[in-house]
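hi!! sorry for the late reply, been swamped w classes. u asked for the two structures so here they r. pasted raw, havent cleaned anything up. first the sequence of the first protein and right below it the tokens
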Amino acid sequence: MSKSVENLEKVKKMGNLKLIIIVLLAVIFVGGTAFGYVVFFGSNSSSQAKESPEIYKMTLDTFTVNLSDMEYRRYLRTDITLEFFNEKAIEEAELKKHRVRDKIISILSHKSVSDFDSNQKLEKSRVELLGAVNEILGENSQIKALYFENFIIQ
């Protein structure tokens, strides 16, 4: 009879051990799920809201200009977006939009196809346009970037 009592005690200990392991695994699973939720959804959205500053931009009307290639009649068609540091600069650019467009047309119409045949040359033209536009807008209304949204040469 003492053997059956010992076996009964072993079974009770095994049952308690299994119960403890199951509870422990459940706690780990719930904790891991909660941690994952906070990492992927909670802190991520709040940090993105802090990190993404407001973007001030103005898209100019489409430019279509003849290029200065003498051998062939070529033209360039492009859409340009200007990005500003603040909203006040957009207001200033709206007032001087006619000057900005005229300057961009003047610069682009003096270019040839070879001025755009590599990324370095395109970037050089972008920097040239950026400087010319900033010269027109003045010190307090500078643009920080100039983007070509469409760029077609025919």
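now the second protein. again sequence first, tokens right under
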Amino acid sequence: MLFNVPYRLIFSGAALRRVNSGDTEIDGKKIPNGTYLVYSTGETHSDPNIYPNPSQVLGTIQVAMLRAKIKRRRMVSLDGVSH
């Protein structure tokens, strides 16, 4: 999930949540059935591995380039389908 600037800089909290409906594994970590999962926007949108300077407001061209970079990453699906 990618928010438009400046929302990325000020929005934090759980944007998405669900209970895992089957045993699964993400990045080598086992997630047992019934585990409560939360998408942490603050952690994601402050990650310097994704945003080189997380506190910097990006211009339109930089945002477009960043979106293209993020689309190339493998997305984790919460419905069992890889995106």
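hope this helps!! also noticed smth abt the second:
The first strand starts at residue 14 and ends at 19.
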